[in-house]
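User: Show me an example of a complex going from sequences to structure tokens.

Assistant: Sure. Here are the input components:
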Amino acid sequence: MQFIVQRDINPGSLSIDRWYADQLKRFKVESPPPSTSTVLGGRPAIRREMIGRFGKSFDFYTTLHRSDIFQVAIGQTSPQEPLDRTYDAILSTLRFVE
Amino acid sequence: MDPYRNVLDERNGCSRFPGPGNIDEFILEAYSLTADTERPIAGIAKMSRKMRPTRNIARSTSRPQSTWSISVTGRAPVAGRSGLVPENPPRLRPPRAPLRVHQLLRGPRPAAQAGDVQALGSRGRRCAGRAPVARRQASARAALVDAAERRRELVTRLIAVLTLNLLTATVTAAQSPPAADTSSWKSFRDPTLGFEVKHPPTSGVRRTQGTLESVRLGEPLKVGK
């Protein structure tokens, strides 16, 4: 489980929905992986699920500061199982301090 | 026997034609005969005089005893033939009652007919002369009893639905695994990245530097293990 901050990747201070859509458009993703709107640390967020060679990955994106994007990346070996409850509990304790 | 014979007669009983000069009266008669069943055959007035039979039939209340009729079969005319076919004597039918104008105008549905007068005035006033007072009181009592029964049935159904929902929620809660207890978890705070989070004490925390600033949490022990 990794908490990542990508600096200045959202210079237009877009909402997370618009930023995510803009990224898909910019990288010309024709068939985007399933994503849903959710809440992370009390903020609107995007939850994306992908199944790859090493299992299933869950990614959460939300805005941070003015132009940064905060991401939580979780990898699980079993592609069929939902998000582990322990990870879910960790996510529920997340708070932003600015 | 020609199966097309007496087509006109079979359909509307107007196969016989009057002589020259009486065609308008004949058409009127044809309409009056077929108004309750079918439309008269179209184009009847367009027949040329050559097609009309030579025998003149006097109009009377009794059916004429003509022995000739025109065959309306759509077949091509045969050279050397008159187009007329012999006809059997007409069959006896029960006389039809003459139709009145309002019967001809009546539609197929039992809707209000033209001429029906819509009821006016209050219902109580209209019904005053019909229903006695005692009967009206009995109807009101029956309506009250019905309403009370309906209300009781509704409340019973509501209670049943609520009980079912409560039972389902209890069963679901009993089947779902227990929520993770985070009271004994450690707290991690990173003001540079701008977040804080709690994690199980068994999982390690490691800060990474580079192009992407990140914090990696080691795989925690699973709940219940």
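The lines above are the inputs; the final block is the predicted structure for all two components together. Residues 1-23, 26-50, 52-74 of chain B have pLDDT under 50 and may be disordered.
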